[in-house]
């Protein structure tokens, strides 16, 4: 039970934190002169606290609904960890309410934030294209690129995992999606964000060039 709760809690919190980061980039690019006054320390603290609180409440509700179900004698999950879809397969009772709850939570956690992020990036891209300086446009796109990559990977895999009927669940696809959003994406996050650093880019180029030179020799 605790494993499922913390899995949902951390995943839900990350969804809302990505939304908060999208608002931060929207403010920085679309309202640069007011950025310091809008993104105050107080607002940042509220955004982070709200993300953690939302993750805590939604995860507690999902975990409670799962573990009031009657389960069959088979208590072994053919999965990497304790997640909602494989647990629903083991349940002996009616899981209709659980499926509705999972779909509703998925809407709140992935679909609605992704639509808000999409709207913010439409404004961001419109603002960037209006910039007169090519260097300014390049810098602005560079600021958003890493965030967009992480959003696409995380929201895409999480939406495919939870925003679908249980009849479409397949073990192979579920394992791949779970591996993508729970292990691969968090592992790649620091790499993706660090590529914005000029020093790291230069070190990476030197490393690749050195490897290529030794390989050809």
From TrEMBL:
Domain (G-protein coupled receptors family 1 profile) ranges = 1-193
Is Transmembrane helix among the key words of this record?
Answer: yes
Q: Keywords assigned by UniProt?
A: Cell membrane, G-protein coupled receptor, Glycoprotein, Membrane, Olfaction, Receptor, Sensory transduction, Transducer, Transmembrane, Transmembrane helix
Alphabetized SUPFAM superfamilies for the sequence? Family A G protein-coupled receptor-like (SSF81321)
This entry carries the following GO cellular component terms, namely: plasma membrane
> Does the UniProt entry include the keyword Cell membrane?
yes
Q: How does it sit in the membrane?
A: Multi-pass membrane protein
Q: What is its main location?
A: membrane
User: What GO molecular function terms would the record report?
Assistant: G protein-coupled receptor activity; olfactory receptor activity
- Membrane-traversing stretches: 6-23, 43-69, 100-124, 145-164, 176-195
Q: Where in the cell is it found?
A: Cell membrane
Q: What family, per the record? A: Belongs to the G-protein coupled receptor 1 family.
What protein name is recorded for this chain? Olfactory receptor
């Amino acid at each position: 039970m605790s494993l499922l709760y913390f899995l949902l809690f951390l995943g839900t919190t990350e969804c809302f934190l990505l939304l908060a980061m999208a608002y931060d980039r929207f403010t920085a690019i679309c309202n640069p002169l007011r950025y310091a006054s809008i993104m105050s320390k107080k607002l940042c603290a509220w955004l982070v606290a709200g993300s953690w609180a939302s993750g805590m409440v939604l995860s507690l509700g999902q975990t409670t609904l799962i573990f009031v179900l009657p389960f069959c004698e088979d208590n072994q999950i053919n999965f990497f960890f304790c997640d909602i879809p494989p647990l629903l397969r083991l349940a002996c009772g009616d899981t209709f309410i659980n499926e509705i709850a999972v779909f509703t939570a998925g809407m709140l956690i992935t679909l609605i934030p992704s639509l808000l992020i999409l709207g913010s990036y439409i404004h961001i891209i419109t603002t960037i294209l209006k910039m007169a300086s090519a260097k300014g446009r390049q810098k602005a796109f560079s600021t958003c690129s890493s965030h967009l990559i992480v959003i696409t990977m995380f929201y895409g895999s999480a939406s495919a995992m939870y925003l679908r009927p249980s009849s479409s669940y397949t073990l192979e696809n579920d394992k791949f999606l779970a591996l993508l959003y729970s292990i691969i994406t968090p592992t790649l996050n620091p790499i993706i964000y660090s590529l914005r650093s000029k020093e790291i880019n230069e070190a990476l180029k030197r490393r690749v060039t050195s490897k290529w030179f030794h390989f050809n020799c």
